[in-house]
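Good morning,

Attaching, inline, the backbone tokens for the sequence recovery test we're adding to the shared suite. The designed sequence is right after.
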């Protein structure tokens, strides 16, 4: 390789993102760089497949210099690319966001507009297609688990992918390159450059030999000598003195004992030079390996129990000096732009192993107290979510969940609540379950901390569609809370509120309404009608009425909820407002005010994009409701575009079997049907129907409602006999569960009449239609849009039965009623004027 030729080409790529600064002390690795250069250029290598190399994965021990090698490659060959984008991959959950951040650079909508997942998918697709750039390089650094990032690696395309990993399992999916310790000449060259002086060759040789040519060890040794002026021979002698007791311990390790000894020498030098810096370093070892926000120390400076750190935390100048000293000794890496500190995971491990068991527990506890002391106090406050997000990577590695101090328990519970509020239900459940097991064993099931945790865990299980587990937990928790806190305690009433949701999930809508009525009275009696808990209870009561087909009452309750929540100054978050707004748009649509529903849903969706995030479950629910409202208003193209986008995004966020995903799938099927794409609608409805039976059970009203949707598709695709069979089964089930005057029962009845007509049994169709119209008129009124649409069907079947005079009279009366009640462009009036049969469908509302 002609390095000078590459260095002459200094043109920076048009897109250059997140690449670390070039290491001015980088030395050697010319053979590896040459191999990478040829392979990445598409030369003679087994990595070339259809003119597109598979990923190049560099694997090796921690501290061997993989990241430095790839950084040097990026800088040295930058002129060969139009796009170079660096993706830190040691925290897989953050990979999509980093990839999505490339979207605007490619002329694609940003994640702020379309959401992280969609932006990441769009970036991957654009790179694969080579538009607008065909010379691109993605670097996934510290990707230790292939499965965690494989979906984000472009599948083919004209660009290149580099991966660094300690895991050699990349060999099955990529062209693997092993990175070993330095060659001896490379070690010698590095030491000369790093020490900024010429070392006698034999002296440098002995030092490299003693350190096993491991780049990280050499870096620390050179930093120590540079900072202290320690002669090489003295350093080697001290190294040998440290290594002998380490060897005597007989610890098995993949690293040379001299690495541990080298590190200990650096720590000893720090200890002698500035003991406070050594204290900070030991503290940093008990955080996770991800970047540590410096604000942890600023926000946690009042933690008096942090005995070793307390004097340092109390003096910000001393803390800054200590951090600077550690940075100069190459024991930490400081990133000023993000205000974070990173400690190599190997150094952290060595630090933890170097202290006694008692010291280890003491230091770990100090970190627990720092995390708890710096944590925000209100997970419902969206402004605090970034601060929670910074702390999250350190909760598990630090062992915070095992700490039984009051502040730590409170913080762990707040983290569960935060994960729930941001819509990361799986993570909330995993942490919640671990905490429940640990706390229950230590504190007992009736402890207040355990009871509060159980409440939030049950809510999380409910959001995941694990309805039975949620209900059983809430039943037991409610009983325990009544004994521990009292029946009218705020926590007890909150569980009672959640139990109403459990009843709705069972399909017990009337029992839920009765329970929620009682709970609302209890809330208002104890705390007043505008208390946040009372407003959430009022919201749920509005849902109860909607699910019981009392749409006008539901609209009044939800309108009041929305107004009170929107003006609340305490205890109500954007999450609550979004939830209320979504449900208000839904009931306005069910009342037949389609244009108003569209306006409300559009505003709700915009609010979610602004206050939550594009991929937040509540924002996606708003998008789904907007699509349904658009479909009801006759704007089919907008509706279809919206629901296709929503379903794709919500499935990625929540998974295919989540209730919200299933509801979006059914909404998409209904919209595809309206668009005439019957086969696609049928396949999706049938798949989703299976999921409803699994999650809700065979006899849940929602399952029957979806069965009626499927029946409609059977009929429209030419199988009216099967449609009648499905609709009849759904009708009988809904009649038994909800009675004859429920809108879901009416849906099956209306569609059953259409099945009979399609089979030519117009007399039976007329009987079904007549009964349905009478019940609708008594339930909703003669001029309600649902009653009128069913009356149109009756007129059509009367005409098909030869009863022309009755049909003509009924048609005239119905059209006249439509014209009086609705605008000329109301979708139901337009269909009636065309003589089209009305078929109803079911869109599962939130529970």
């Amino acid at each position: 390789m002609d390095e000078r030729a590459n260095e002459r080409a200094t043109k920076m790529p048009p897109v250059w993102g997140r690449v670390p600064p070039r290491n001015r002390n980088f030395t050697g690795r010319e053979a590896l760089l040459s191999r990478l250069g040829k392979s990445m250029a598409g030369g003679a290598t087994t990595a070339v497949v259809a003119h597109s190399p598979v990923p190049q994965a560099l694997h090796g021990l921690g501290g061997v210099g993989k990241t430095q090698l790839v950084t040097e490659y990026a800088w040295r060959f930058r002129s060969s690319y139009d796009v170079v984008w660096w993706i830190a991959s040691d925290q897989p959950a953050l990979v999509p966001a980093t990839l999505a951040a490339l979207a605007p650079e490619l002329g694609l909508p940003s994640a702020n507009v379309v959401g992280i997942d969609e932006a990441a998918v769009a970036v991957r697709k654009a790179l694969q297609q080579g538009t607008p750039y065909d010379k691109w390089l993605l670097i996934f650094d510290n990707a230790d688990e292939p499965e965690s990032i494989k979906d984000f690696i472009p599948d083919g395309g004209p660009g290149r992918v580099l991966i660094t990993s300690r895991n050699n399992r990349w060999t099955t999916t990529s062209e693997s390159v092993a990175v070993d310790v330095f060659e001896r000449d490379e070690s010698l060259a590095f030491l000369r450059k790093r020490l900024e002086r010429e070392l006698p060759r034999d002296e440098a040789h002995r030092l490299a030999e003693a350190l096993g040519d491991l780049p990280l060890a050499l870096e620390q040794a050179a930093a120590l000598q540079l900072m202290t002026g320690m002669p090489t021979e003295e350093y080697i002698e001290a190294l040998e003195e440290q290594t002998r007791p380490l060897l005597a311990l007989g610890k098995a390790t993949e690293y040379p004992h001299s690495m541990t000894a080298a590190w200990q020498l650096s720590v000893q030098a720090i200890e002698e030079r500035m003991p406070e810096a050594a204290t900070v370093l030991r503290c940093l070892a008990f955080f996770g390996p991800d970047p540590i926000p410096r604000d942890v120390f600023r926000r946690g400076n009042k933690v008096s129990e942090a005995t070793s750190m307390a004097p340092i935390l109390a003096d910000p100048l001393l803390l800054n000096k200590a951090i600077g000293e550690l940075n100069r000794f190459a024991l930490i890496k400081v990133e000023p732009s993000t205000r974070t500190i990173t400690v190599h995971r190997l150094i952290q491990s060595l630090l933890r192993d170097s202290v006694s068991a008692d010291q280890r527990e003491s230091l770990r506890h100090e970190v627990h107290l720092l995390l708890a002391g710096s944590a925000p106090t209100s997970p419902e406050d969206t402004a605090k979510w970034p601060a929670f997000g910074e702390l999250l990577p350190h909760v598990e590695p630090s062992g915070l969940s095992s700490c039984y101090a009051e502040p730590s328990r409170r913080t762990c519970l707040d983290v569960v609540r935060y994960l729930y509020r941001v819509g990361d239900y799986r993570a909330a459940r995993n942490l919640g379950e671990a905490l429940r097991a640990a706390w229950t064993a230590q504190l007992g099931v009736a402890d207040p901390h355990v009871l509060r945790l159980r409440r939030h865990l049950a809510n999380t299980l409910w959001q995941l569609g694990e309805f039975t587990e949620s209900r059983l937990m809430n039943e037991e928790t409610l009983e325990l809370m009544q004994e521990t806190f009292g029946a009218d305690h705020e926590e007890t009433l909150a569980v009672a509120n959640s139990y109403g949701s459990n009843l709705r999930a069972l399909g017990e809508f009337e029992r839920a309404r009765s329970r929620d009525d009682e709970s609302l009275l209890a809330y208002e009696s104890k705390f007043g009608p505008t208390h946040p808990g009372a407003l959430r209870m009022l919201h749920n009561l509005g849902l109860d009425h909607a699910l019981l087909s009392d749409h006008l009452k539901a609209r009044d309750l939800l309108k009041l909820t929305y107004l009170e929540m929107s003006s609340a100054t305490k205890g109500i978050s954007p999450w609550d407002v979004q939830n209320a707004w979504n449900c208000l748009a839904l009931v306005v649509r069910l009342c037949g005010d389609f244009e108003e529903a569209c306006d409300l849903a559009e505003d709700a969706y915009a609010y979610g994009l602004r206050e939550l995030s594009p991929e937040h479950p509540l924002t996606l629910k708003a998008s789904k409701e907007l699509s349904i409202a658009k479909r009801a208003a006759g704007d089919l193209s907008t509706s279809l575009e919206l629901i296709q986008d929503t379903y794709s995004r919500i499935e990625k966020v929540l998974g295919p079997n989540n209730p919200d995903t299933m509801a979006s799938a059914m909404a998409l099927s209904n919209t595809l049907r309206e668009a005439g794409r019957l086969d696609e609608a049928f396949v999706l409805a049938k798949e989703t129907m299976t999921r409803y039976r699994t999650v809700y059970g065979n006899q849940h009203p929602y399952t029957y409602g979806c069965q009626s949707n499927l029946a409609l598709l059977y009929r429209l695709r030419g199988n009216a006999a099967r449609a009648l069979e499905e609709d009849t089964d759904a009708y009988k089930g809904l009649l038994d569960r909800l009675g004859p005057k429920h809108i879901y029962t009416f849906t099956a009845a209306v569609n059953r009449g259409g099945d009979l007509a399609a089979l030519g049994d117009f007399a039976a169709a007329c009987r079904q239609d007549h009964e349905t119209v009478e019940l609708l008129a008594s339930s909703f009124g003669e001029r309600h849009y649902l009653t009128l649409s069913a009356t149109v069907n009756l007129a059509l079947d009367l005409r098909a039965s030869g009863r022309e005079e009755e049909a003509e009279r009924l048609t005239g009366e119905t059209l006249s009623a439509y014209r009086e009640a609705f605008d000329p462009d109301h979708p139901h009036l337009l269909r009636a004027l065309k003589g089209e049969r009305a078929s109803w469908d079911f869109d599962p509302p939130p529970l």
